[in-house]
Amino acid sequence: MHVKPEYRDRAETEVAVLEALVDRPSEGMTLFELRSHVDASIDELEDALGALKDDDLIDAEEDGNRTVFRADDRVFPDGDEQDEPSLLEELRRRIGL
Q: Greatest CA span in the chain, whole angstroms?
C-alpha cells in the first residue's frame, strides 16, 4: 500500500517511513522495526520521524517499555485511489493493447 500522492513529495526517508507505517496500520512500528524496513541511518531515521511528527503525519505512543509509531489517518490512500500505473501498463495503454 502506498501513501497518498500529496505526501510522496517529501524527503526519501520520510516517504519510506510513511509507507512502512501505512503497511502496518493497526499495530504500528517501533524504531527498531522501522530500521529494518527503511534503508537509512539511525540519524536520518530520527530526523525523518521528527519532521513527520512536527507535521502531524505520525503519532508516537508509549506501549509498555517501547514507543510505537503510527501513520495519521489522512496519509492512508482512499479506497478508490489506485496505485500509479507501471511503465509497462502505461506503454500498453498508449499503444492500445
A: 56
